[in-house]
Each structure stands twice: as structure tokens, then as C-alpha cells.
């Protein structure tokens, strides 16, 4: 019968999936002061409405929430047999689809647990891109802890509850990997042992398009064609080895935008520059406008917007931006350098490197711009930043350098499959040890000769680690099955980590041991957790015009994809403790705590 629940589900699922992919004008836009689901309103500051921003809004900037029901394994007798529920039935059917023998017996084991998986696919994500997911138990689960757990391969879908039924979209991603429980980072809360993250192993199976929508009073095929032509005159992307325009008109209202590689990590800036393009302007008008923009560029109150408009013009504007680099005003120099960096102009590198060193409000933007440059001078500036005292500056520079050369490692690097990366980075500043909490699990040692001191002693169930003579560490592991196992290594932190890996310790266990050592004064190096530059810092001058003050705060929130993001969908506020370990401000809730899904029962 067409009115049966199953029939309605069969009809609605494809419909929901198509709706999720359509370039709708209702796609969420993130400008300061607006909710994620509001559309950006175009503003008309010009009677002629020649700027693309004057007659368009943006679409496709929402996060796509994806969910799944999964099985966590390798738990040390801390799991549970899930109670009868819709979620359990779903997981059993998924296990049978994967040809798992006797799924109910597997679920009954105390070494497994049913878990809920949730992630947010960012705007502009491409097929094959990776992102983080959250893992947690059901609200009334008997599972005690997910520590040491491994998330079995899980298919991710968009799901919604409607009329007492769960409507599922098509599979849009998949994930598997080691679970890092939140209790490792957030002490004193037992609930955090049943909640964690799988970092950087969720894979998108589809591209998520974004673009422009022409306002209703202006739309026509002629207009969308003219807008696309103007954008393609300025921007292109590489497809199948050849250059093609970045803009593709889809109909009389919608234009799809491809993101040039140079703007991959600053999507917000790309969209700002596109909207600063004039779509109808004669050559003599450009020359006249350049004169006006030069004057505005040299004034601190108007330099930011002028630099964006010059960047939108392109190569004709380079001489003016180079003049801006000679200004006596630091923000004029910085905004000029930013525009030049995205045109891969070598002269910009030195100014951006200086800005990252001395001005926290410019740091994120400067490093992101340096990562986009192919020039050798950009690499030299990032190398210098590895020697700064600031932890976020050093780790930010490391990430930027890695993004400039994603296909090869420029540092000594090791990788334990399905667990974490270890990087050893030369640095002339004090020893620093960094653990990540987002994007991918990695340990970065800034300074290769870092050691634990002579007082190093860790005693916990089944494990003893003790400093001995001749700068050696003796590690004894006790197991019922294999008996005692003892190894000796040097006091170098890098050697100690390698031996811990050989003893089958995971990322979370290693972090916990070094946290204990730091707290007890057994570690002379500084320990930092996920210290990254913050793009939301605001640079304030003593005097600003009212209009430009508002302009300087306008941004596309969470400009994903970027490499300074965290897995909570927002930038974090950090406070250092007395031992030098950075922790997130506990009073700020993350995006996962604010969002709800059908499977959570909330």
C-alpha cells in the first residue's frame, strides 16, 4: 500500500538526499551575528550594482551532519550488551550486511559496545577529503569506558526523525579508527570516558558544492552568464590537466564555484574576493577605480576592504599593493601582503612572517597565506617561525609547512597504522611537545634531543617505567597471558615513545603518561595540547570609522577546509595552567554538545 510506513520511507529517502544536494538559497551562511542557517543578505552600496556582492548571496556554506550506528571493539572488559532498541536493531542489520557471523553474540561481549557516531562534513569538502567524528555511547548504556577502543568501519548517512520513523539518506561517508576518549583531555569527568573522537579518518564520498545565488529581482540567464564570465576572467582551477574557469552557471539563478588550490585553506577569503569582483566594467573605468583604491589602501581605516578589491582585480593591482607594502602603517603593509600572497608574489612573504611573529590577530591569516604560496621565501619564513617561543606559532608553522608539501614529509616522521603520527622538528627555542586533538592524532617534538629527567617514575596497573643509570629508562609490562616483559631505552622522549608503541600503547595512553610526568615534575619539556592560532582575533586600531569597523569583523565562520580547525566546528579559547599545559576554556560548549541527532534520544 502506498500509505504504509515502509512505502513512505522508500519515497522520502531519495527525496531527502536530493534536497540535501540541491544548491538552495536557504543553505546556511555564517557571518558574525547570524545563526548558521541564515542566508547572507547582499547589500547594495552602489546605485549601479556592479559588484557581484550587490546582487548575490551565497549558498552551500552549511555543515552537513552525518551519523551512524557502529561497533566499538578492543575494549578491556568495559563494554556492554546493548539493551533492545531501534539503534541495536539497526546495528544488527548493518553487521549482517557486512557478513558478521552471530552479531548478537558479538554485541553481548564485554569487550564491545554499541556506539553512536556523528560528524559534520564541512562546506566545500571534496570526495576523498577527511574529517573528524564524535563517538559516544547511548544515554542509558552500561558501557563503562571506550578507552583503548577501535571503531569498526561505519557507513555515515544523513538521518532525520520524522513522524516516529528514522529517515535515512544515501551513504555519504565512512569511518573507522582508534577512539580517543575525551577524559584524556578533560580530567575529572567520568562521562568523558564514554565519549571520544576518531580523528581524520572519516572520508567523504561526495563533493559538496557551493556558490552564488542571484537575488530574485535580478536573476536571468544573461546575468548568471555575465557573472560567471567575470569570475572566470579572474579565477580558474585545474581539471584533467587543463585550466577551466572556477564559475559554472547552473540555471538562471545559481552559479557553482570551484575553489582554486591557492584558496583551499581560506575559503572565506576566496568568497569575499569573488564578491568584490565587478561584473561589468570597461578598461578606462578600471584605471579610474585603481586610483581611488590606491588612496583607500594607504589609509588604515579603509585598507582591508581596498586590499580585497585590488586582489579581485588581479595582476593590474600588483604595483599598488607593492606600494602598500612600503607603508609606515603595519596594517596597511599586512593587508597588502595578504592580497599579494594569494597572487603568489614573493615580496609578500617577509611581511607576513613578521606579522605572524608580533601580532596575534594577524597570525592565523599570515600563516594560512604563507601556506598557499609556492615561493621559496614563504618556506623560509615558516621555518623561522618554528623557533618562536609561542607554542601556537610553532605548531601553526609546522602545519603550514606540512600543507605546502603534503606529498612528502619535510621533517623526521613516523606513523603507526590506525593510531598516530610522530614528528621530530628542528627548533632553536625551548623544548616543546605538542599533542593534537583535532584533524589527526599526532605528536610533534620541537627539538630532537628532548629527554625525561632522572626522577622519571610511572607506576600504574600492569606497567612500571623508571629512570635508571646512564640516562636509561627501564620499562616493565605485566600481562596475564604473556607474563612480564622488560625493555630498556634511552631517556630521549622520541625513543621512549617508540618503545611505548612496541608495547602496544595507543595515542591516548601515551598522552596520559606524559601528562602525569609533567604534573609530577619529571618532564623538563613544555607539554601543549592542541595550541593553534585563532582566526577570530580582532585587530583594533585606536581610531576606526563606524563603517570599516563593521567590515573588519565580517567573515565566513569556520572557513573550512583549513588546517587550523578543531573537531568542534569553532575556534577554541585557551588558558595555560601553571605547568605550561594549555587547556580549553571549560565554560565554552562545543558544537557537538549543542547539536542533537535522532539516535541520541534528545
Overall structural domain count = 4
Pairing-aware structural class of the strands and helices? alpha+beta
The average pLDDT value, as a whole number, equals 80
- For the secondary structure, the number of strands is 24
Q: For the largest sheet, list the strands in their spatial order.
A: 2-3-4-8-6-5
State the shape: flat
In short:
The protein contains 18 helices and 24 strands. With 602 residues, it is α+β, with helices and mostly antiparallel strands.
Write the layout of secondary structure elements.
Blueprint: H1 5-21, H2 52-55, E1 56-59, E2 64-73, H3 86-97, H4 103-108, E3 113-121, E4 130-136, E5 150-162, E6 165-178, E7 180-181, E8 195-204, E9 210-214, H5 221-234, E10 236-239, E11 242-245, E12 247-249, E13 254-257, H6 267-275, H7 283-297, H8 303-313, H9 318-324, H10 330-341, H11 348-358, H12 360-372, H13 376-385, H14 391-404, E14 412-416, E15 420-425, E16 432-435, E17 442-446, E18 457-460, E19 463-467, E20 472-479, E21 483-490, H15 493-502, H16 507-519, E22 526-529, H17 546-552, E23 574-576, E24 582-584, H18 591-594
Parallel strand pairs: 15-17, 16-22
Antiparallel strand pairs: 1-9, 2-3, 2-5, 3-4, 4-8, 5-6, 6-8, 7-8, 9-13, 10-11, 12-13, 14-15, 16-17, 18-19, 19-20, 20-21, 23-24
Helix pairs in contact: 6-8, 7-8, 8-10, 9-10, 10-11, 11-12, 11-13, 12-14, 13-14
Amino acid at each position: 500500500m502506498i500509505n504504509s510506513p515502509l512505502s513512505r520511507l522508500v519515497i522520502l529517502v531519495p527525496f531527502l538526499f536530493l534536497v540535501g544536494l540541491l544548491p538552495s538559497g536557504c543553505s546556511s551562511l555564517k557571518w558574525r551575528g547570524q545563526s548558521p542557517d541564515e542566508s547572507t543578505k547582499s547589500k547594495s552600496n552602489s546605485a549601479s550594482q556592479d559588484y557581484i556582492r550587490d546582487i548575490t548571496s551565497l549558498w552551500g556554506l552549511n555543515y552537513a551532519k552525518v551519523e551512524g550506528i557502529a561497533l566499538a571493539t578492543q575494549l578491556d572488559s568495559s563494554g556492554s550488551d546493548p539493551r533492545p532498541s531501534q539503534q541495536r536493531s539497526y546495528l544488527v542489520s548493518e553487521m549482517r550486511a557486512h557478513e558478521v557471523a552471530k552479531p548478537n553474540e558479538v554485541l553481548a561481549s564485554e569487550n564491545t559496545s554499541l556506539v553512536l557516531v556523528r560528524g559534520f562534513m564541512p562546506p566545500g569538502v571534496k570526495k576523498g577529503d577527511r574529517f573528524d567524528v564524535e563517538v559516544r555511547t547511548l544515554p542509558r548504556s552500561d558501557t563503562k569506558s571506550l578507552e583503548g577502543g577501535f571503531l569498526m568501519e561505519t557507513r555515515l548517512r544523513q538521518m532525520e526523525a520524522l513522524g516516529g520513523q528514522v529517515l535515512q539518506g544515501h551513504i555519504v561517508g565512512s569511518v573507522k579508527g582508534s577512539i580517543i576518549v575525551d577524559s584524556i583531555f578533560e580530567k575529572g569527568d567520568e562521562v568523558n570516558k564514554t565519549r571520544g573522537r576518531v580523528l581524520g579518518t572519516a572520508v567523504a564520498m561526495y563533493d559538496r558544492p557551493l556558490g552564488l545565488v542571484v537575488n530574485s529581482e535580478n536573476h536571468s540567464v544573461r546575468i548568471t552568464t555575465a557573472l560567471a564570465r567575470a569570475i572566470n576572467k579572474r579565477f580558474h582551477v585545474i581539471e584533467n590537466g587543463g585550466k577551466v574557469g572556477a564559475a559554472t552557471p547552473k540555471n538562471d539563478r545559481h552559479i557553482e564555484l570551484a575553489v582554486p588550490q591557492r584558496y583551499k585553506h581560506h575559503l572565506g577569503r576566496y568568497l569575499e574576493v569573488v564578491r568584490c569582483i565587478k561584473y561589468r566594467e570597461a578598461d578606462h573605468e578600471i584605471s579610474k577605480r585603481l586610483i581611488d583604491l590606491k588612496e583607500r589602501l594607504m589609509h588604515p581605516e579603509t585598507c582591508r576592504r581596498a586590499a580585497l578589491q585590488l586582489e579581485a582585480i588581479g595582476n593590474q593591482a600588483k604595483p599598488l599593493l607593492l606600494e602598500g607594502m612600503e607603508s609606515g602603517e603595519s596594517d596597511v603593509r599586512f593587508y597588502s601582503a595578504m592580497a599579494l600572497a594569494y597572487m603568489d608574489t614573493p615580496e609578500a612573504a617577509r611581511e607576513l612572517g613578521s606579522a605572524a611573529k608580533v601580532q596575534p590577530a594577524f597570525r592565523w591569516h599570515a600563516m594560512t597565506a604563507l601556506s598557499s604560496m609556492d615561493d621559496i621565501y614563504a618556506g623560509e619564513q615558516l621555518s623561522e617561525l618554528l623557533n618562536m617561543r609561542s607554542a601556537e606559532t610553532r605548531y601553526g608553522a609546522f602545519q603550514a609547512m606540512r600543507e605546502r608539501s603534503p606529498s612528502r614529509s619535510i621533517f623526521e616522521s613516523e606513523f603507526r597504522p590506525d593510531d598516530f603520527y610522530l614528528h621530530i622538528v628542528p627548533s632553536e627555542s625551548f623544548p616543546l611537545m605538542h599533542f593534537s586533538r583535532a584533524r589527526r592524532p599526532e605528536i610533534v617534538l620541537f627539538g630532537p634531543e628532548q629527554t625525561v629527567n632522572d626522577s622519571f617514575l610511572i607506576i600504574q596497573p600492569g606497567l612500571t617505567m623508571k629512570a635508571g643509570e646512564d640516562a636509561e629508562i627501564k620499562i616493565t609490562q605485566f600481562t596475564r597471558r604473556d607474563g612480564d616483559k622488560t625493555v630498556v631505552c634511552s631517556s630521549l622522549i622520541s625513543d621512549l615513545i617508540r618503545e611505548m608503541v612496541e608495547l602496544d600503547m595507543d595515542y591516548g595512553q601515551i598522552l596520559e603518561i606524559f601528562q602525569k610526568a609533567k604534573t609530577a615534575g619529571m618532564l623538563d619539556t613544555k607539554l601543549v595540547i592542541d595550541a593553534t592560532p585563532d582566526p577570530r582575533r580582532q585587530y583594533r586600531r585606536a581610531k576606526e570609522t563606524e563603517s570599516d569597523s563593521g567590515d573588519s569583523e565580517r567573515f565566513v565562520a569556520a572557513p573550512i577546509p583549513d588546517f587550523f580547525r578543531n573537531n568542534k566546528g569553532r575556534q577554541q579559547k585557551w588558558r595555560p595552567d601553571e605547568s605550561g599545559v594549555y587547556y580549553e576554556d571549560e565554560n565554552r560548549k562545543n558544537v557537538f554538545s549543542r547539536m542533537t541527532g535522532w539516535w541520541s534520544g534528545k
